[in-house]
Design a protein that fits this description.
membrane, transmembrane, mainly alpha, transmembrane helix
Length: 343
């Protein structure tokens, strides 16, 4: 397939991915605002203006806004490039030449939005590592350094594209080394983040299975889905796809490269939606804990000294609030006050 066919496929696929991202982004913003509003209203003496200020201080809210702007901007530029290639560039007679012009202003701007989206994605992934591992700073040193290096090299790649001469290939030696190094940095961040987050979730669920109360609960499919979402595996796979295509000197690198913003956005919006809606093992934990909460009823008189429904609601809600920030090795039967300091 030539550059024209690949870019037409890119316009279609990126538009479809952007549609998915748009829905997830709006849902994410609604979820974040809703959770902040609910939490603020539950605190005495908290005003509406103070609640609004706290939303703007939320890392996930700010990251969602920035990612929405970069992904949307890149999609708009891609659509603009399609019209340019077939209608405006030399009267639409040479779309192939247009798509192979690396130094074209729209190509440079599009590349800048890709780099910006990846930077935001790597920052979110680093933040999630810090959150999932109970704010352990030592675990984010490596991804933070990789992200800083990517910022420097990413800017240099944009500058390199802007300085191309007509007719030069994107696979020239200087560009090849810089692009592969830049992609390798974000891939290292992705692999590290995916691995360490996946291990944390797997270890947590494994600890749950050792509890007798959870012995009958099957978590296999849930584990796989949660690990895929929480570890941003889609983001990692797509970055690897681009790196392989570019290393093979394939024009598919254009398709892979310019779909990175949408893939990044979808991956991290799924995390925000998962966190906001409480789609996690916390729901299963609530069921198991309600069972534990009923045990005293067999030995205490009267049997309904501790109403199961009240205990289930309290414990489930506090654990879901906790998983907004971190994962524990195994859920335990605790009172609400035991979790308040985690929020």
């Amino acid at each position: 397939m030539n550059a024209v066919g690949i870019n037409l496929a890119l316009a279609c696929v990126e538009s479809a991915l952007y549609g998915i991202f748009f829905v997830l982004a709006i849902t994410s913003l609604a979820v974040i605002v809703g959770r902040h509003t609910n939490r603020s209203s539950s605190l005495s003496g908290r005003s509406c203006s103070s609640s609004s200020d706290r939303i703007w201080m939320s890392p996930l809210f700010v990251a969602t806004i920035i990612l929405f702007m970069t992904v949307t901007s890149h999609w708009l530029v891609s659509i603009h490039r399609t019209f340019d290639a077939f209608l405006y560039y030399e009267g639409g007679r040479d779309p192939m030449g247009y798509y192979l012009t690396v130094e074209a202003p729209t190509m440079v701007v599009s590349t800048a939005f890709v780099v910006a989206s990846v930077i935001v994605g790597d920052i979110i992934l680093t933040y999630r590592i810090w959150v999932v591992w109970d704010r352990r700073w030592t675990l984010i040193v490596f991804p933070a350094l990789c992200t800083l290096a990517y910022v420097v090299l990413g800017v240099s790649v944009v500058q390199l594209f802007a300085s191309y001469s007509p007719g030069e290939s994107i696979f020239m030696a200087d560009a090849r080394l810089r692009i592969v190094t830049t992609a390798g940095l974000t891939l290292a961040t992705n692999l590290y983040g995916t691995g360490i987050i996946a291990y944390r979730i797997w270890a947590s669920n494994r600890s749950m299975k050792h509890d007798r109360a959870f012995s009958m609960v099957g978590l296999t499919m849930t584990e796989a889905l949660v690990i895929f979402i929480e570890s941003a595996a889609l983001y990692t796979f797509w970055t690897l796809f681009f790196l392989i295509a570019f290393a093979a000197n394939s024009l598919l690198e254009q398709f892979a490269f310019h779909c990175i913003p949408a893939a990044t956005g979808i991956s991290f919006m799924l995390i925000v939606v998962r966190v906001g809606l409480g789609f996690h093992w916390s729901q299963i934990a609530g069921v198991g804990l309600s069972f534990v909460g009923r045990r005293p009823s067999t030995v205490r008189k009267p049997p309904l000294a501790y109403p199961p429904r009240a205990i289930t609601l309290s414990v489930t809600r506090t654990i879901e609030q906790e998983t907004d920030y971190s994962l524990r090795h195994a859920p335990e039967f605790r009172s609400t006050s035991d979790y308040e300091h985690l929020a």
